[in-house]
């Protein structure tokens, strides 16, 4: 059996190829027939399990009529796709796909409420500065991600106490958000914990660990204007250690509920 590459960049490349195929309304079998290959090749490319040769990418893009800047971007993405570490300044589509298909998710947010737990008003305040012209569609997309919590995915979301006290929007926005967060802790669709101020390790950036049923795990970290993703076992293991540290200092469920109640009473 061929060892899968399934690096973050290879999987992102697969998403691009799948999107190009679907825009042309081509099925996997139809594209495979045009390429003179078995459907398994196309499926494995789109999952990042195999990397297409440059000539195969050219053929796929030709059949899918991808030209110009989009073609150059996909060809460039294929270069170095075997590397386990990937710095990306593009969109968030790969992250959303990993979130949707993961078997388990661990997320750390030191300063804001995790996206999966945000209300529409809170999300709107956060997104407006960057996406003013498309903020409503962005908010709708963020709320749609809540289905992850209803799908049975094992989801552990840890946030810093600063996220509870940071003013995002007006008092009504924050009160609604805190009440929503309090309800999320109670209904237990996700394991939600808060790290109290003063206990937090020196971890300034948010990160997420995605675990999959049959693919390598991925750790994703947001940088200033980019994101860093890795399927390196050593790097993933390092972040698992950090996740363990966070859970050790985080409040248990009852303590998290008590802290949220205290913050709500003080508003």
3D structure, described in words:
- This protein is an alpha/beta fold and 267 residues long.
- The chain folds into two domains: 8-83, lambda repressor-like DNA-binding domains (434 Repressor (Amino-terminal Domain)), CATH 1.10.260.40; 93-265, Endonuclease, Chain A (2-Layer Sandwich), CATH 3.30.870.
- Helices cover 50% and strands 13% of the residues.
- It has twelve helices and seven strands.
- The protein has helices spanning 8-23, 28-35, 39-47, 54-63, 68-78, 93-101, 120-128, 135-144, 161-165, 171-187, 233-249, 253-265; strands spanning 85-88, 104-109, 154-160, 191-195, 207-211, 218-222, 227-230.
- Strand 6 and strand 7 (227-230) form a beta hairpin.
- The longest helix is centred in the last third of the chain and has 17 residues, at 171-187.
- It is elongated and about 65 Å long.
- The termini are far apart.
